[in-house]
Amino acid sequence: MNESNDASPMHTLNPSEQTPQDIYKLLVGSVVPRPIAFVSSMDAKGVRNLAPFSFFTVASANPPIVCFCPMVRGVGSSNLPSSKDTLRNIIATREFVVNIVSEEFAEKMNACSAELPPEVDEFEVSGLTPLASELVRPPRVAESHVQMECRLEQIVHVSAEPLGGSLVLGEVLRFHVRESLLENFRIDPEKLHAIGRMAGSTYARTTDRFEMMRPK
Ligand SMILES: Cc1cc2nc3c(=O)[nH]c(=O)nc-3n(C[C@H](O)[C@H](O)[C@H](O)COP(=O)(O)O)c2cc1C
Questions:
Q1: Contact (Cβ atoms closer than 8 angstroms) between residue 158 and residue 147
Q2: Which residue has a Cα nearest atom 5 of ligand 1?
Q3: How far does the centroid of ligand 1 lie from the alpha carbon of residue 215, in Å?
Q4: Which DSSP state fits 71?
Q5: Distance between CA 42 and CA 1 in Å, rounded?
Q6: Which residue, 10, 66, 90, 122, is the most exposed by fewest CB within 10 angstroms?
Q7: HSE-up (13 A, CA, CB side) for residue 183
Q8: Atom of ligand 1 nearest to the CA of 89
Q9: What CA–CA distance (Å, rounded) separates 149 from 73?
């Protein structure tokens, strides 16, 4: 493994002296690569919604809980409500599906990240295929190789400021995994082809991997 030989001095920053936009850049440039939850949800009237969220991880395996963070839209970033449709839908209906994003449909995923009004159905915008879920109303994304039907467990409203956000925790009620990827509960990363988000418009592939055993 290559050791870093960059001994240039550290630049220390106090977040309270910086703009939220610059702090956002520091965070998304440092916490990399981030997996992407492609979240389908529905409003109370049944309008479908689909949006990617890279502030996403696992909170517990027992019970299985995943979490992601819809942020508060920045001031003047659009004429849309400051809270994302996904968050408002989940507050209203308490259900969502997390679909894992593979490189094959990355561009369609990206199309769903456009700042679109609540009445727009991103399945139609992207051309992705809705697939009925078993236990929740929002459909799955048929193109995704791993889909998790979730019931809202808890929302932590962390900050209502622009670029603030909420932590949405959901219990996975059903996993759906493409059979060709699954062997003894292991998911083949070569076939999953998941992508991760870096800063800005940069993404990472998961095709360059290495092994390292944990000490006993
Ligand atoms: C790869 C990717 C990851 C994103 N991650 C987040 C995120 O973690 N939190 C967030 O608030 N917005 C994130 N966005 C932006 C949202 O997808 C975008 O605001 C979307 O329009 C929200 O949709 P909604 O209002 O229908 O919920 C991301 C966009 C992309 C392309």
A1: no
A2: 53
A3: 38
A4: B
A5: 46
A6: 10
A7: 7
A8: 27
A9: 26
- Kindly give the distance from the C-alpha atom of residue 63 to the centroid of ligand 1, in angstroms, as a whole number: 26
Q: How far is the CA of 54 from the centre of ligand 1 (A)?
A: 7
Among 166, 163, 174, CA closest to 96: 174
How many angstroms separate the Cα of 204 from the Cα of each of 61, 66, 102, 108, 145? Answer: 25, 21, 11, 17, 18
pLDDT in tens, 86-131: 999 999 999 999 999 999 999 999 999 999 999 999 999 999 999 9
Q: How many helices and strands (H and E) does the chain possess?
A: 5, 14
Mutate to test the pocket of ligand 1, among 84, 109, 119 (most ligand atoms within 8 A of CB): 84
* Cβ proximity of 39 and 142 under 8 Å: no
Residue 28: closest CA among 165, 175, 120: 165
Mean pLDDT, the chain, integer: 96
Superfamily of domain 18-195: Electron Transport, Fmn-binding Protein; Chain A (2.30.110.10)
Residues 43 and 32: their CA atoms lie apart, in Å, by: 31
195 near 104, Cβ under 8 Å? no
Indicate whether this model's pTM tops 0.90: yes
11-33 exposure pattern, b = at least 16 Cβ within 10 A, e = fewer = eeeeeeeeebeeeeeeebeeeeb
Residues 6+ apart with CB under 8 A from 81: 73, 88, 118
Q: What amino acid occupies position 14? A: N
The residues spanned by each domain of the chain are 18-195
